[in-house]
Amino acid sequence: MASATEDELEEIKRYEDFTTIDWIQDSILERNRRIRAGKHRWTEIGQTWLVVSIVGVCIGLNAAIISIVTEWLSDIKMGYCADGWWLNEQFCCWEIEGEDETDACDSWHPWSEVGPARWLIYVMCAASFSFVAAHLVRSLAKYAAGSGISEIKCILAGFTMKRFLGFSTLFIKSLTLPLVIASGLSVGKEGPSVHVACCIGFTVAGWFPKFASSQAKIRQVVTAASAAGVAVAFGSPIGGVLFSIEEMSHNFSIKTMWRSFFCALVATFTLSAMNPFRTGKLVLFQVTYDRDWHFFEIIFFVILGVFGGLYGAFVVKFNLQVAAFRRKYLQSHAVAEAVILAVVTAMIGYFNRFLRIDMTESMAILFRECDASTGGGTGDICQASIQWRLANSLLLATIIRTALVVISYGCKVPAGIFVPSMAVGASFGRMVGIMVRATYRAYPQSGIFAYCDPNIPACITPGTYAFLGAAAALSGVMRITVTVVVIMFELTGALTYILPTMIVLLVTKAVGDLLGTNGIADEMIKFNGFPFLEKEDHAYGVDVSAVMRTDLYTVPEKGLRVKDVESLISSTDVKGFPVVSVVASGSDSSLSSSWSEVVTAVEGDGGKPVLLGYIGKTELKFVLDKFRKTAGHLDPETACLFGSPLPPPPPSAPVSASRPTRLASSRVDELVQGIEEEEIPETMFERSDGSEGVELWPWVNQTPMTVSSQLPLEIVMQLFKRMGPRVILVEDYGSLVGLVTVKDVLRFIAMEKPGYHHPSWDERGGLDGLLEELWSVVRGVVNQLGELLGKRWTRR
């Protein structure tokens, strides 16, 4: 293997911080639990649905509380309610018709009548909220920062990250999320809401021993919770289920889908019963459209799709640059970074109506249909007299919001990217809609508008352009399609707009594929070094022998003492050890005491280690501790036996006969594979009379997953994805030659970069390279124009 640079070695070391779940072993344990359950099977099934119901109710309650607190904190930056300090602006002015008619509300008082003073208070509130949130995250729960979707995808794929789904993370993230949104940072709460929902699912499932002892079952609950998190964030239960299938889950079963659907349904019902906005809506930007679209508008829908693809590529690539800068220079200044970002966002955004208010409120305004009754306040978004001023304001909001999303997403506070991206797309879409409507009003007789009915003044609905632009931007940055279509349909209930939404998202996906962009969640998995195998298959063109680890720590079936095993455990950082036969060396008399050693020596083909099984380090520690506690003392010189006893060979059987089954003993019932630790009888830890040492063979997995060294790497990766073993042993004609894990595969990809690998953003020069390319293009165009003008001037 080629020598690695310092950056590559740093990338490789990141994979050491994760623990892999052995899904095969977990499946064996679960199978034995089902067999022992017997007639109590229906009780366990009922307990599963009870857990899912409790999780759904808790997620709905948590989402309602977060929405109420977020609205109050967002409004408190602008003023207060004289009727009660706990009322936000909407509830304070409940009697006033219209969502934006706050000037006529006597109960709501701004903090000052002086413009600069109001601006200063607005900025100070934003700084205070961001400081408290960042400080709590840094001090009490570091895993509460960020979106959490990338990490949850890895957890559902079979990796363990301690405390990431713990109660402290749940509490701190629920507490700080309203503060972050109210601070005005260009981050959203929908991604963190999924993380919070998964924390609730993990915590509730941990109360029940059935789930706490099964990695597969607790991940089924976490998957269902992720669907409920999206459901309450967008008011879209079916969209939440599709999101858990399309984006979150590595292997999705029908059973998990039904539980996800039920959990999302319960969570949505709970949120609807709470009615946090007192409008009957589950989210603020939920709208309904009763107007149809026209075929000529497909041209403009395609423009929105192209924008979504370009926006996604731009944000993903530049955000990775910002993340690299943050990791290198701002690692120890997380609180200061969050405060500075909030202050800059507030100082800039205060002077733009679409940046000043909360993003969900902004989208509610941008999605709105225009009719004769709309007017006044920010309802002037529908007034034709100021349409070009509005278009300029929306363009400015789109550019500024995009830049703020790039630098804000990833800071050490709870931060999502769903709603900020939708807000950017809504701003751009509304601007396009206003321009199309202005064109129609200026040239109503144009051929392109022939489908418009002259008797209906509202031929163009700018709100639908904002709606489609939001869908395009969300799909562009997350690289999901079907989920977005369903979410948008559930938000509007407009069946007629499914086709335009599909057209926009297909164009967005095509542009993203053309630019070679992955979703930001997948890119952050790679950037952070999370051990995650992609769902897509790639052609590597190498065998597993090029990836496998050959410098192995093995244990022989005989020959080790207790102190040798304990030294091996303490001096290595591996998760387990292959068990091999005793290598034949010396005279035959040294092997005469054990017939199995004679068979092993013959089958070992000249001394090669023959694979007998695999034992985990955790099992070794457990067994030695139990033997020591049972006997009161364990002599360090006691021999350790890893090979199972064999019956003597038949007198007529030659030594070269095929290998006998290594479990053909009267003690086969004492195998403990797939048995809970507390159910292992104490007699297993008592040394029988005449025993040669500590018998460890019952804890040896004598049928580990093995492959040939010539097997293509793609097949081995499929085994990891579909069966989920922690380790795959590589053998050659029965002899152990190496082993491979998921981390080894990821190291190989990071080091060797096989032929399928496309140059990364950093390898293409990053931001500096892009600026150089742009400058070279501009300089070339200027030079060509200069030459062309020079030639024309010479002719004259």
From TrEMBL:
Q: How does it sit in the membrane?
A: Multi-pass membrane protein
SMART domains, alphabetized: CBS (SM00116)
| Segments passing through the bilayer | 49-69, 119-137, 164-186, 192-209, 221-245, 257-274, 295-314, 334-355, 415-436, 465-489, 495-516
Q: Where is the CBS domain?
A: 700-760
Molecular functions (GO terms):
voltage-gated chloride channel activity
- A single Pfam family it belongs to is CBS
Q: Which GO terms describe its cellular component?
A: early endosome; endoplasmic reticulum; fungal-type vacuole; Golgi apparatus; plasma membrane
> Which keywords does UniProt give here?
CBS domain, Chloride, Ion transport, Membrane, Transmembrane, Transmembrane helix, Transport
Biological process annotations from GO? intracellular copper ion homeostasis; intracellular iron ion homeostasis
Q: Where in the cell is it found?
A: Membrane
- PANTHER family associated with the record: ANION_PROTON EXCHANGE TRANSPORTER GEF1, CHLORIDE CHANNEL PROTEIN
UniProt family annotation: Belongs to the chloride channel (TC 2.A.49) family.
Record's protein name: Chloride channel protein
